[in-house]
Design a protein that fits this description.
CATH superfamily of the largest domain in chain A: Cytochrome-c3 Hydrogenase, chain B
Oligomer: heterodimer
CATH superfamily of the domain at 4-68 and 98-187 in chain B: NADH:ubiquinone oxidoreductase Nqo5 subunit
CATH architecture of the largest domain in chain A: Orthogonal Bundle
Order of helices and strands of chain B: HEEHEEEEEEHEHH
Distance between the termini of chain B: 89 Å
Radius of gyration of chain A: 22 Å
Strand content of chain B: 25-35%
Largest sheet of chain A: 4 strands, antiparallel
Strand content of chain A: 5-15%
Helix content of chain A: 40-55%
CATH class of the domain at 4-68 and 98-187 in chain B: Alpha Beta
Strand order of the largest sheet of chain A: 1-2-3-4
Strand order of the largest sheet of chain B: 1-2-7-6-3
Number of helices of chain B: 5
Helix content of chain B: 10-25%
Shape of chain A: globular
Structural class of chain B: alpha/beta
Chain lengths: ~400, ~220
């Protein structure tokens, strides 16, 4: 019996592990990994067919966290969806907010004051630091470095979350951006604290890299594992650090130049091999570039209002029309597609989730590797199920 | 990058039998889109991907849109002769017509090589009920694989030629398509047949129901 002739696993009684005889390969084993497995970063399930320890087939199953975010967005006012975008990728609420605010601003032709643009860049780069730090910690945890790297990463993440809490009142569900600017101004003391954090972050990265980047076990577990060819990455719509680790220079901050990014001096790190190690390295290098952006932004931030005086939040209505708008989130391209018919709610509210699209090639990356490697590969894709399932 | 009009003209020159129309976007963003006929859609998509001036190698976003049937009222003014030596009069005539609804798949394309975009493609089904098939563009752009599955799951557009068209967010046994505008959610999401229901039915058969009049008065049972 070949693998493709297997009946779906969900209809099989008993435990979700079974042996299938195959005349050439001996016994294939179909294992349901998840949805409650610590390595799957949430409620995510993989149906893996194994030949010994080698993956010959892998089907991701998700939707356990599905609450039809887009339908709720259609039945809510434009402003009412803003706090709900926090719950998409709950690590990166600031970039979700920005992407949604930018889409509504383009839909209605609004402008944003310069100080608010600077604040948005500062918050987006802090979010990138926080996301990549968490990811590196989780990736090493998945690779078997139990506890210590994750706790080092979370110690630094907590410092950024303290800044978010001071500014917006909430650590993770920030609900800070508005169409037309930002909800509250940042006092000078906050900007000073952010600059101190940015100046010190490089030292943490040095420490982190000293422990890990040259580590023999990390290299053995990640180099040559889950190699993603550049052609496949482009065709499969992979975005963010995963795409750049495959060697494709495509960063929406540079390509679209949204916000005030063209004013900033930063480089886009690229990988050579597209393997899991490159995906780790690209993120570490991106963090160093984010620190440079933060230092420039905190040095140059002008005074002035943070909210467009003509902006209207409650009772907001957009003219009929539609828009697709995207920004470079920490996980990749996060975009919003809005259709307005002139009413108080959008007629269509669509989220383009980066980690959902990045999951498309999970099977391609895992085929031929061992079951232990799928855990590391999944960790390097960087998924958040709040966004995948929506 | 070429304007959508230029792209449309080039597609029409390359595929003479195809139907391509502009869909104008009245909003400030002015992202106009191209409405493709379903019969040549895949060839046109391959052309857009491979054409050296466009190279739209990156299909970023696939979304479904549900457009319900809507009644369109058109008012036409008919000049009528007024009273003698008076001003001419204008009579208004209202005509109502029903525009049938349809489902729509919208593709946002970018070029990673030439760094431009978006070019927006729209495909429309014939109606919302039984003719809901559209050609899948997954063979052209792999990134459509999960996104078209999602549109199938939530809107009910059947993508012909998709390698693995299954539900992706809702569970496999689910019947309806929740993102449709006329979707009514069930009262009991979690209901599924259990032996418990059979036991209750058997118990009802076993104990005769007390007479409703007696129960309403609160009289003690004999």
């Amino acid at each position: 019996m070949s693998v493709s002739e297997l009946p779906p696993l969900s209809s099989a009684p008993g435990p979700h592990v079974r042996a299938v005889h195959d005349q050439f390969h001996g016994d294939l084993l179909e294992v349901s990994m998840g949805p409650h497995h610590p390595s799957t970063h949430g409620v995510f399930r993989m149906i893996v067919t194994l030949d010994g320890e080698t993956v010959v087939k892998l089907k991701p199953v998700f939707g356990y966290l599905h609450r039809n975010h887009e339908k709720i967005g259609e039945n809510t006012s434009y402003l009412g969806s803003m706090p709900y975008t926090d719950r998409l990728d709950y690590l990166c609420s600031m970039t979700n907010n920005w992407s949604y605010a930018l889409a509504v601003e383009k839909l209605s032709g609004q402008t944003v004051p310069e100080r608010a643009e600077y604040l948005r860049i500062i918050l987006a780069e802090l979010t990138r630091l926080l996301n990549h730090t968490c990811l590196a910690g989780f990736l090493l945890q998945d690779g078997g470095a139990s506890g210590t790297p994750l706790m080092y990463a979370f110690r630094e993440r907590e410092k950024i979350l303290d800044l978010f809490e001071a500014l917006s009142g909430s650590r993770m569900m920030c609900n800070y951006q508005r169409f037309g600017g930002c909800r509250a101004d940042a006092p000078p003391s906050w900007l000073g604290a952010a600059l101190t954090l940015a100046d010190n972050y490089g030292r943490f990265l040095d420490e982190f890299e000293k422990l890990l980047t040259g580590n023999e076990i990390l290299m053995a577990r990640t180099q040559g594992i889950g190699r993603l060819p550049a052609r496949l990455a482009v065709s499969a719509g992979i975005t963010g650090p995963m795409l750049r680790a495959a060697g494709v220079a495509y960063d929406i901050r540079k390509v679209d130049g949204y916000g005030l990014y063209p004013r900033f001096d930063f480089r886009v790190p690229l990988g050579d091999h597209g393997d899991t190690y490159d995906r780790y390295m690209v993120r570490v290098l991106e963090m160093r570039e984010s620190i440079k952006i933060l230092q420039q932004a905190l040095r140059d931030i002008p005074g002035g209002p943070v909210m467009d005086t003509k902006a209207r939040l409650r009772g907001f209505r957009a003219k009929p029309g539609e828009v697709y708008s995207r920004i470079e989130g920490p996980k990749g391209e996060i975009g919003f597609y809005l259709i307005s018919e002139g009413g108080p709610n959008p007629y269509r509210y669509r989220v383009r989730p980066p980690s959902f699209v990045n999951l498309t090639i999970l099977e391609d990356l895992c085929l031929g590797h061992s079951i232990a490697d799928t855990v590391v590969i999944l960790g390097s894709i960087d998924i958040v199920l709040g966004e995948v399932d929506r | 990058m070429e304007t959508p009009e230029q792209i449309r003209d080039r597609i029409l020159a390359r595929f003479p039998g195809s139907s391509v129309a502009m869909v104008l976007n009245p909003g400030p963003a002015a992202q106009h889109s191209l409405l493709l006929g379903a019969d040549h859609a895949r060839e046109i998509a391959e052309f857009l991907r491979d054409d050296p001036a466009l190279r739209l190698d990156f299909c970023s976003n696939v979304s479904g849109v549900d457009w319900l049937d809507r009644e369109i009222v058109e008012t036409t003014k008919i000049p009528t002769p007024g009273p003698v030596a008076g001003p001419a009069m204008v009579a208004e005539q209202r005509t109502r017509r029903l525009q049938p609804g349809y489902l729509e798949a919208v593709y946002h394309l970018y070029s990673m090589e030439l760094r431009h975009g978006p070019v927006i493609l729209r495909l429309r089904t014939a109606n919302r009920k039984d003719q809901v098939a559209l050609p899948s563009l997954t063979p052209v752009w792999r990134s459509c694989e999960f996104q078209e599955r999602e549109v199938f799951d939530l809107f009910g557009i059947v993508f012909s030629g998709h390698p693995d068209l299954r539900r992706i967010l809702m569970w496999d046994e689910f019947k309806d398509h929740p993102m449709r505008k006329d979707y009514v959610e069930p009262d009991d999401y979690e209901w599924e047949p259990t032996p418990h229901g059979d036991v209750l039915a058997k118990a009802k058969r076993h104990y005769p129901a007390s007479p409703p009049a007696a129960a309403a008065k609160g009289e003690p049972k004999p």
